[in-house]
Input
Amino acid sequence: MIQVKNVTKDFTIYKKDSGFKGAVKGLFVRKKEIIKAVNDISFEIKKGEIIGYIGANGAGKSTTIKMMTGVLTPSSGEITVSGLIPHENRIENAKHIGVVFGQRTQLWWDLPLEETFTILKEIYNVPDDAYKERLDYLVNLLDIQAFIKQPVRTLSLGQRMRADLAAAMLHSPDILYLDEPTIGLDVLVKEKIRFAIKDLNEKYKVTVILTTHDMSDIQELATRIMIIEKGVIIYDGSKEDINKRFGNNRMLELKIENLSETLLQEVSVMCHKKDKKSIVIHEDVVLRITFNQDRLAVADILGFVMSQCKVLDFKLRDQDIEDIAKRLYAGGIHEEVV
Amino acid sequence: MKKWFKTYLPFSRATVQAHILAYPFETFMYFFGMTIGIFVVYYIWKIIYATGGYNLLEGFTFHEMIVYVVLSFAAMQVTDNGTVWIIADEIKSGNIIMNLIKPINYHMRVFAEVGGITGFLTMVMIFPVLIITILMVKIGTPITMMFFIFSLILGVVISFLFDFIFGMLAFYVKNLWGIGFGKYALVRLLSGALIPLVFFPKPIQGVLNVLPFKGIIYTPVMIFLGKYNSEEILINLLTQMMWIAVLGLMNYLFWKKAITKLTIQGG
Amino acid sequence: MRYLRIYKIFLKQYLKTLMEYRSDFLIGMLSFFIVQSSNLIFLTLIFKRIPNLNGWTFEEVLFIYGFSQIPRGLDHLFTDNLWLLANEYVRSGSFDKYLLRPINPLFHLIAERFQPDAFGEMIVGLSIFGYAYHLLNLSFTGIQWLLLIIAVLSGSLIYTSIKLAAGSIALWTKRSQHVLFIIYQLSDFASYPLTIFSTFVRMILLIVVPFAFVAFVPASVFLDKPYIPLGILTGAIVAFVMWFISYNFIWKRGLQVYESTGN
Output
């Protein structure tokens, strides 16, 4: 359905020094710099997939989505969406996609929601009966009825987000691009939105490309994960395989009687001997060790600690996407990739 | 005083940086655009003096009239410095609340911001215009120059206080953009920036004399042109100060009311 | 047809919101009314001192001035969103929206906004025009009225084309409000007899930024003092050429650039 082949996007930026002096200086000289927002990425997306597309701010997520929607032209490489090249056939492509930007509404601020829908019906040329059926379905699915007569500016963020999603799906697009659709929403609205996305995907086989910073969105929705860092896709695969890719990390939590500095030191030294990247931290009486289980066995750690002191309780858990995302945002896991 | 500068000067700097230095080309274009109006008026006056065969029209030689046009235009640019938009934007966006919880005087802060712009504009606009006109027309003694600058500063304050009240309209109206145009045109007409006030019929002149707008443009420019004797200068400066007091009081009262409205309704 | 239907829906919705903010609408109109009136007062005051302005009587100057406000108001009424294109849409990223919908992005942009403040200009324009028409004892034939309509539409199209060209620059620079502003300011010249200006100014207004064709050239035809031969036809041609250049060479080129640089 979507093919992206060796796509690169360069941007030229002009640098200004900071502060008042910098601004004055900026009047005369500008430093030019070319950055690769997206660097030689390739992937293919099949019909009905839900892609969780993650990466830190500025990693290249939005640029990728803008290229797929035809708003941006790639500097090099090829993109085809349902056989069309988006930036060349932007209007044709636009008929088959729905787009939601969490940060920015696509609705008309002063118009009642209902009227917004009628305008979109005309813009997308949706036949009357199809429109009616679709609208009923979306109104039910997203629970919109209660505020459909209100002007958009009076809607709460959660209502607006649901309205935006409905507006993007009115013309029954095959592909739905969602850029941070749950940003700033409360848990209940998040649930509603996720349910709606799932339902659209199951009933209508809508392909979904979802960027988010909320890993629970990914956990619940994504059938496949793509991670982008500094313009390069560093992971593309299933949720389950992600641990293999980013080191088979686990976390051991130990509750200890009389946790002392010396003990901490000793455990730390012992762990680092086998796994240089292991992390040992403590909070009150809890000792938390993150380690790669290919290098360091749980039994070794447990044995060592128990020989030193009394362990009251312990917990062992696999690293999840949340942990990976944390490491990703903290400064990159590019180098860690095994 | 020193503390005052320390507190509010950063606002002036930041505003100049954000609004002027960040968009140097655009700022330049904007001024260039504003000067186009002068040219239209210049040609019209030129024809008037020529076809009417006037040496002196309402006490103005052609040269003086051109100086009047240029200087009143420059003064208009300096006094119309965006106060309305700053306040209106903050009221509309609700950011006003963020600024009210800071331990600084709201009026002073806004004044520091627009004052920064005014100061900057004065340097890039008024001074060059002044120097050129002084060289060209050879008018003005150092004393009248001093009175002119003093009067212009009073004009800036009057304009600020008036605009501040005007900006508070944003509490009540949505279409402030349109009103802004209307206000600009009105001030331009009533302050003498469009045509010297002596051109109005006598009864209307009487009305204009007691309105605050005259003090924004007409008074300083007439002082510069040496059209006032020392007694008239004194009366006009006092009138300006009187208006500052009145508008200041009005600001205080409106502001108190607006703040109450804000705290009761939550913005 | 479909576009017309879409436009009608936008307009209908817009008029509904207008009723909601009736006072704002009236205030906005009043403001532009004041703007126009202040220029009128200026004209009245100076004509007390002179019999004519370079051979143009007060009534004739009024006729030109009133005429000029009609196309200006029409354009203002319909294409005001071009100002927002110049000022903020590209910078804030809202412009993406127009590229994500399956209709002509320029149509979408323009259809979305309707500026009733312009009624202030149009009312003043029509009133002054009517007043001058009366003072000058004019009586137009059917053909003349038709020519008048053509001239007004051409004038509006000139305004729109110039605004489109200047607004589109934002697609390169993110913001072009100041360029648009400066060019729009030139239209101040359009409200007065062109002959009072220097040759240089005249050339600019005839050739570079052809505001002369908005009001002065056609008005001079109706006043029986034609400034150039076939003024109205020339004006219409100028309007179409301007539109063609603005749309194809500036707006469309700008879209391509936007697509390659984003925001």
Remarks:
- The mean pLDDT of chain A is 85.
- Chain A has two domains: 2-243, 247-318.
- Chain A is about 35% helix and 30% strand.
- The domain at 2-243 of chain A is CATH 3.40.50.300 (Rossmann fold).
